[in-house]
Write a structure and sequence with these properties.
Layout (H helix, E strand, L loop, with lengths): L8 H10 L4 E10 L9 E5 L8 H16 L3 E2 L7 E20 L28 E20 L4 E10 L6 H12 L10 E7 L3
Parallel strand pairs: 2-3, 2-4
Antiparallel strand pairs: 1-6, 1-7, 4-5, 5-6
Helix pairs in contact: 2-3
InterPro entries: DUF4136
Protein name: DUF4136 domain-containing protein
Organism: Pandoraea oxalativorans
C-alpha cells in the first residue's frame, strides 16, 4: 500500500517558490488492453488484508465510488460484477532545498526607501550584494493506482496511476485530486503520461 512515487523536482520547486498553488498538476499514466471498456460497467472493490476494516481506506473507497458513478459505473457483488477494482496509494514526505538571497538588515527595505536607510539607494556606502542561504521546504509525493480486472477471466484490462506533488503533505489532502485525475479520461491512451491540471477549490 505504501509506495515511493517519483516526481519531477523542477515542477516541485516552481510550486514551492510560487507559494500557495491555485492549481494542482497530476501526472497520469495508463496501460490497457480494453480501450473502450467493452461490457457492462459494473464493478466490485478488491482489498488487501491491511485495507480490510481500515477507516482511512473506506473513506477513499467512498470517494472513488462517487466518482465512478459519475462515469456510469455501478457497484455490484464480487460474484456478479464485470470488473474488480483494486486501489493502491501512498505518500512520501520530502524536502526541497532552495537557495535564496538574504540581505544585511542595514540595507533591507524600510521606511526611508528601497534599502531602509535615508542615505541613498544602495545604503552607505553602496550596500553589499546579498548573501545566499539555503532553506528547506517540506512537500509530499503522493500517488494512486487503480487496477481494473476482468472478473470472469481474471485478466487485468486497465491500469492507471496518478501522481502529484502539489496537493499538500497528507494522503487525505491529495486523494481527491488523484482520483479525479486518474478518471479524468476513461480510458487514457495506453503507455503515455498526460499532465492533468485541476483548480483548487472547485
Amino acid at each position: 500500500m505504501w509506495k515511493r512515487w517519483g516526481m519531477a523536482t523542477l515542477a516541485v520547486a516552481s510550486v514551492l517558490l510560487a507559494g500557495c498553488a491555485s492549481t494542482v498538476t497530476s501526472q497520469v499514466t495508463a496501460f490497457g488492453t480494453s480501450p473502450g471498456f467493452e461490457g457492462p460497467r459494473t464493478y466490485a472493490f478488491t482489498r488487501t488484508p491491511e485495507q480490510q476494516n481500515n477507516q482511512e481506506h473506506a473513506t477513499y473507497e467512498q470517494w472513488l465510488r462517487t466518482r465512478l458513478a459519475g462515469d456510469g459505473f455501478s457497484e455490484q457483488s464480487p460474484s456478479s460484477a464485470h470488473y474488480l477494482i483494486g486501489m493502491s496509494y501512498g505518500i512520501t514526505q520530502q524536502v526541497m532545498r532552495v537557495t535564496e538571497p538574504a540581505y544585511d538588515p542595514m540595507f533591507a527595505p524600510g521606511p526611508w526607501g528601497p534599502w531602509g536607510r535615508p542615505w541613498g539607494w544602495y545604503g552607505y556606502p553602496y550596500g553589499g550584494p546579498p548573501a545566499y542561504v539555503q532553506r528547506d521546504y517540506p512537500y509530499g509525493l503522493a500517488g494512486l493506482q487503480l487496477r481494473f480486472t476482468d472478473r470472469p477471466t481474471g485478466k487485468e484490462v486497465y491500469r492507471v496511476q496518478a501522481e502529484t506533488s502539489d496537493a499538500g503533505t497528507s494522503m487525505a489532502s491529495a486523494m481527491p485530486f488523484l482520483i479525479d485525475a486518474a478518471l479524468k479520461q476513461l480510458p487514457f491512451p495506453s503507455g503515455r503520461t498526460v499532465n492533468v491540471q485541476q483548480k483548487v477549490g472547485q
